[in-house]
């Protein structure tokens, strides 16, 4: 089962993220949890979120980049759902071996994420905390999908990215642990 954790505070104004989500919504064995719709007051149903995660083989985090990170709701979701002794720590193995795919959109164009660009760092620098969040919980980090320049790319470019995302999910099969192997130390924390 594929679980999409979707966090966009203004879905009605979303162009890039919405196209990505709509491209995959009808795939079989896929559940979408749009956190801002489910929890307008930020009062996350932890048991329901954990149950959805337990059902999933692949967890997709889909959101726009906000201040080099995730929107507040997704950060809150990590804080209250990825609990000690559930996601990590003693016996905390509920996410272990599940795959994680990060799908994000940014306002900054590809060239802006470089030493000489306005964001001064390669985009990989901002991937690191997300990747480590997954690895710390024993998940397998898949190659992310990042759509840069979300405000300037054409409808055709967004359409192509959406189609590629659909293809990626439609053909997704778990692969054996490889270079991004889950961190075996995580459970000892
Ligand atoms: C509060 C806020 C913070 C943002 N921070 C960043 C940022 O740090 N880097 C960046 O490239 N874009 C940033 N953006 C732009 C969003 O990433 C962009 O609007 C979004 O990816 C577009 O996708 P959408 O069409 O699905 O809304 C920010 C936008 C907002 C509203």
Automatic annotation (TrEMBL):
- Superkingdom, according to UniProt? Bacteria
Has keyword Iron-sulfur?
no
According to its UniProt record, what is one Pfam family this protein matches?
Flavodoxin_2
Q: Which SUPFAM superfamilies match?
A: Flavoproteins (SSF52218)
Q: Which InterPro entries is this protein grouped with? A: Flavodoxin_fold, Flavoprotein-like_sf, KefG/KefF
Keywords, ordered alphabetically: Oxidoreductase
Its Gene Ontology molecular function terms? electron transfer activity; FMN binding; NAD(P)H dehydrogenase (quinone) activity
Coiled-coil portions: none
Flavodoxin-like fold domain location is 2-167
Q: Which NCBIfam families match?
A: PRK00871.1 (NF002044)
Annotated protein name in UniProt: Glutathione-regulated potassium-efflux system oxidoreductase KefF
Q: Which organism is it from?
A: Candidatus Propionivibrio dominans
